[in-house]
Design a protein that fits this description.
- The complex is a heterodimer of chains A (106) and B (221).
- By secondary structure, chain A is of the alpha/beta class.
- Chain A has a single domain, classed as ATPase, V1 complex, subunit F (Rossmann fold, 3-Layer(aba) Sandwich), CATH 3.40.50.
- Chain A contains five helices and four strands, in the order βαβαβααβα.
- Chain A has a four-stranded parallel β-sheet with strand order 2-1-3-4, with helices on both faces.
- The longest helix of chain A is centred in the first third of the chain and has 13 residues, at 28-40.
- Chain A starts with a strand and ends in a 10-residue tail after the last helix.
- Chain B has 221 residues and is mainly α.
- Helix content of chain B is 77%, strand content 9%.
- Chain B is built from three helices and two strands; from the N terminus they run ααββα.
- Chain B is rod-shaped.
- Classes of the chains: A alpha/beta (106), B mainly alpha (221).
- The interface between A and B is large, with 37 and 53 residues.
Chain lengths: 106, 221
């Protein structure tokens, strides 16, 4: 697995055109199962998830990010433009790790 | 005033002085490391922002093409086409080290865009979709690499921060206080023993002179 995508049917179809395998998920249960399966073997590769999936699985995704093991995560927008309002990476880090990153951190 | 619970002796004082020196050195080193990490993190975050922007433009384009392709060809037809597409990819997973943090450097090589379906029954939109999504996956790999790096750095920064704080607020003041305490009590002891020595000397002198007197007395007798 070099790439794998978890998302809704249409987004996954689009990535099928680039030869990316994918799981179509419709609800939280399916998303959780697909995500757990995708990360279970720590296979080197890139796991693409759509923003709605990220929102659904917030705890799992954050835990995987903190571990920083393969497959490496990349969050992409889905075809419907869901979840445009996003927390920035800084905010997520300060929430999960507990540090604030500011320029003059003295 | 927090003090370590050790006896105020000279050897402890020497050992503590060494510890304090070590802690101060470690503190300044860690402080430097922390600054480097923060700088690196800022740099990475900037790059993440750039790549996210790129993802946005590329995905907007790819999705627009896909939508068009969907409306011209229909979902099931496209799915049939897509099921036959296969791209060869090699995935290389190296590590890069910076500021004592190991992070992954990913290299994905994917084969170039080429037509993988018959020309009959497909239109240019299908080709375009394929090309757009190939570009999007390429960018996504860069994003994954960068984001993973950012998280690793953030974790390391947290760890360093905790060590810096522990040294600055606990260990170094503790050592200083204890050293102060040892210094004071050693001084007190020294005064004590000095005084005792004086007393002893005086007594010895006294007893010497009385002995001498006694001796003389004996001779006389």
């Amino acid at each position: 697995m070099a790439y794998h995508i978890i998302g809704d049917a249409d987004t996954v179809l689009g990535f099928r055109f680039a030869g990316v395998t994918g799981d179509v998920v419709e609800d939280v249960e399916q998303a959780r199962a697909a995500f757990a399966k995708a990360i279970e073997n720590h296979e080197p590769g890139i796991l693409l998830i759509t923003r709605p999936v990220e929102d659904m699985l917030e705890a799992e995704v954050t835990a995987h990010r903190l571990e920083s093991t393969p497959p490496y995560l990349a969050v992409i927008p889905d075809i419907w433009g869901h979840g445009q309002k996003r927390r920035s990476l800084q905010e997520m880090i300060s929430e999960a790790v507990g540090i604030k990153i500011v320029e003059s951190d003295k | 005033m927090a003090r370590l619970n050790i006896a105020p002796t000279k050897s402890n004082q020497i050992a503590l002085k060494r510890d304090l020196r070590m802690a101060t050195q470690g503190f300044s080193l860690l402080e430097q490391k922390r600054e480097i990490l923060v700088m690196e993190l800022m740099r990475m975050l900037d790059r993440v922002k750039q790549v996210q922007q790129e993802i946005k433009t590329r995905s907007d384009k790819a999705y627009a093409t896909l939508r068009q392709a969907l409306s011209y060809n229909g979902y099931h037809h496209l799915r049939n086409i897509a099921s036959g597409i296969h791209y060869e990819r090699t995935f290389k997973d190296g590590t890069r080290v910076s500021a004592g943090v190991r992070y992954p450097s990913l290299k994905v090589t994917q084969s170039e865009f080429h037509s993988q379906f018959g020309f009959v029954g497909t239109d240019s939109l299908v080709d375009q979709t394929m090309e757009d999504f190939l570009k999007l996956t390429e960018t996504a790999a860069r994003l994954a690499e960068l984001e993973t790096g950012v998280w690793l750095l953030a974790r390391e920064l947290k760890k360093t921060q905790r060590r810096v704080n522990a040294l600055e607020h606990i260990f170094i003041p503790n050592y200083k206080d204890t050293l102060h305490f040892i210094g004071e009590s050693l001084e007190g002891k020294e005064l004590d023993s000095f005084f005792t020595m004086k007393m002893v000397k005086k007594r010895l002198e006294n007893s010497d002179s009385t002995e001498e007197n006694n001796g003389k007395g004996g001779e006389e007798l």
